[in-house]
Design brief:
By secondary structure, this protein is mainly β. The protein folds into 2 domains: 166 residues, Thrombin, subunit H (Beta Barrel), CATH 2.40.10; 147 residues, Methylamine Dehydrogenase, Chain H (7 Propeller). It is built from 1 helix and 35 strands. The strands form 12 sheets. It has a 4-stranded antiparallel beta sheet with strand order 23-24-25-26, with no helix packed on it. Strands 32, 33, 34 and 35 form a 4-stranded antiparallel beta sheet that branches. Strands 1-4-5 form a 3-stranded antiparallel beta sheet, with no helix packed on it.
């Protein structure tokens, strides 16, 4: 997911952090805003662009906690990012949406386990207009689940469980034309022995994570980086953290790559140096870490862990100091089972957004929640 606001705040925050001043603790409220939330399913994907929040998942209806109104929304919905108002954008998908991003021209790209979006045939990939109709000239397709999307001026990066894209062999990672959905053949990362579950982009370097063991013929254990134009593997190669895990979420800042990891033995959150792939810190949860976001010197980690994260009582969300991985005091009042937990995060100036399969104590809000900054 893009977070254009981050460009303005991170240089200052990280300058203070790495010169010895601790990051401020999260300043968000712990009571969610009233408003719309999915009545069923799981919210897996979120994209924020031009004051609009796009939400994707397995839901088929939304409910308003204030008015009591319920409306149909098949796995895709949009809200005003400031007011929380439900927008008329209603393309609809016939299967679960697991990835969303918005291109520079405002086109919304969706990936998941569907066959039709906005009434058009779309195999695991779709391009949707801001008005909610299918982009007729875009014919991107994948042979299996798409789990991550990054839309750029160069094209649309897609990652997942597929072996074919645009009806051609291309395993787990591909770059597609923004205008037609055709595979850009000059990009070939040659992912082998596994799949890609997460991506984060920094300039001309695409960092990827998943369950794979090699890129372009070079050994890479679950994490690596490729040239964003060609797909050629870069020297960035973190040491393996586990033997059977997979990276489910990734993000980056000016000097570091952060990952959320799931697998046997519980979840993990990790920070690596961009310069040499050395590990800054590693923190453990008692369940999978599934999504991660960095903002203003803090790392937000979501998953289905609980009651413990790094020896601290935390359910589904932990906030860490980005510099040293120290667990911060901020915690949300999740109730009930911790599974399936959090799958989407967006930490913005003024608002924290979380999506997943959770419930919050003392409120109706489920599966999608917004928390305003205190003060």
């Amino acid at each position: 997911m893009k977070r254009w606001w981050r460009l303005a705040v991170l240089p200052v925050a990280w300058g203070l952090l790495w010169w010895g001043m601790p990051a401020a603790n999260a300043a968000y409220a712990t009571t969610p805003n009233p408003g719309w939330y999915p009545t069923n399913g799981v919210a897996y994907a979120m994209a924020v662009s031009n004051n609009t929040v796009y939400l994707g998942g397995g839901f088929t209806a939304l409910h308003n906690s204030t008015t009591g109104q319920t409306v149909a929304r098949n796995r895709l919905a949009a809200f005003n990012a400031t007011t929380g108002e439900l927008l008329g954008w209603n393309p609809g998908a016939d299967g679960t949406v697991r990835a969303l991003d918005v291109g520079p021209d405002g086109t919304i790209y969706a990936g998941g386990d569907f066959n039709r979006v906005a009434g058009a045939a779309d195999s695991s990939l779709a391009a949707i207009t801001p008005g909610g109709s299918a982009v007729g000239s875009w014919n991107g397709n994948a042979s299996n689940t798409v789990r991550a999307i990054i839309a750029t001026s160069r094209g649309v990066y897609v990652a997942g469980n597929f072996a074919r894209v645009d009806n051609a062999a291309q395993n787990a990672l591909a770059l597609l034309s923004s205008s037609t959905g055709a595979r850009i053949t000059g990009f070939d990362a040659r992912v082998t022995n596994g799949k890609v579950r997460s991506m984060t982009l920094d300039g001309n370097t695409l960092y990827i994570g998943g369950s794979f063991r090699a890129l372009a013929g070079q050994a890479r254990d679950f994490a690596g980086a490729v040239d964003a134009a060609t797909g050629a593997a870069t020297p960035w190669a973190p040491a393996a953290i586990c033997s059977e895990c997979q990276l489910l979420g990734m993000d980056n800042d000016a000097g570091h790559v952060f990952a959320a990891i799931g697998g046997p033995g519980g979840g993990r959150a990790v920070s690596w140096e961009k310069s040499n792939a050395s590990r800054d810190w590693l923190r453990h949860g008692d369940g999978d870490c599934q999504t991660i976001a960095v903002a203003d010197g803090l790392v937000y980690v979501g998953g289905h862990f609980g009651p413990t994260f790094n020896g601290t009582n935390r359910h589904q969300l932990a906030v860490l100091n980005a510099g040293n991985g120290a667990v911060q005091s901020y915690a949300l009042p999740f109730t009930g089972t911790d599974h399936p937990g959090l799958w989407a995060l967006s930490a913005e100036p003024g608002q924290l957004r979380v999506g997943g399969g959770f419930a919050l104590g003392g409120t109706q809000i489920r599966r999608y929640a917004v928390f305003h900054t205190i003060g």
